[in-house]
Amino acid sequence: MKGTVAENAPIIPVIASKNINIDVLLNAICEIKIPDRDINADPLMYVARSFDVNKPGTEINALLGGVVGGSLIRGKFKKGDKIEIRPGINISRDKKKEEYKPIITTIRSISTSMGEIEEALPGGLIALGTGIDPSFTKADNLVGNVVGLVSKLPPQTNELT
């Protein structure tokens, strides 16, 4: 691990099945410094998951937009924010040259493991319910994208929702 952020990390031997050194491990975890997070910076979220929450056979007027999940690393998001997901959807027909179109949409809901919230701050995982066509988000299609506020990014002429 030489040359990585873990180079000087302690090594704590444990035997979980016998509950040996679990207390030492938990104490070491509690001593890890929480990184500074700037909630006043332009928001930035890395997409770790994307999916469709609609069940097969859902009536068309009851369909929900696609969901993107991940970690907000700075700034904050709230319901109603207009966001841009980049690089977005691959629109190229040529397999040798990929061309992407950013997705612009609105946050319709924000969820955590504890339930729905009005505003998300850095730390932990969140899921953003959007107005994106769920076919774009199914099966983790948007993994690796980043999400930011539209007002903080260059304007786009076309909105894909």
Give the CATH H-level superfamily of the largest domain: Translation factors
Low-confidence stretches: 156-161
Reading the helices and strands in chain order gives HEEEEEEEEEHE
CATH class of the largest domain: Mainly Beta
Q: Mean pLDDT across all residues, rounded? A: 90
How are the strands of the largest sheet arranged?
Answer: 5-4-10-1-2-9-6-7
How much helix, percentage-wise, in residues? Answer: under 10%
Tell me what portion of residues adopts beta-strand conformation: 25-35%
Form type? globular
Could you name the CATH topology of the largest domain? Answer: Elongation Factor Tu (Ef-tu), domain 3
Structural class by sheet pairing and helices = mainly beta
Q: Compute the separation of the termini in Å.
A: 44 Å
Largest sheet, described in full?
8 strands, antiparallel
Count of individual beta strands: 10
Can you tell me about this structure?
The protein has helices spanning 22-30, 134-137, and strands at 44-51, 67-74, 77-78, 82-90, 100-106, 109-112, 115-117, 119-120, 126-129, 146-149. By secondary structure, it is mainly β. The chain has two domains: 1-32, no CATH class; 44-152, Elongation Factor Tu (Ef-tu), domain 3 (Beta Barrel). It has an eight-stranded antiparallel β-sheet. A two-stranded antiparallel ribbon has the order 3-8. The longest helix is centred in the N-terminal third of the chain and has 9 residues, at 22-30.
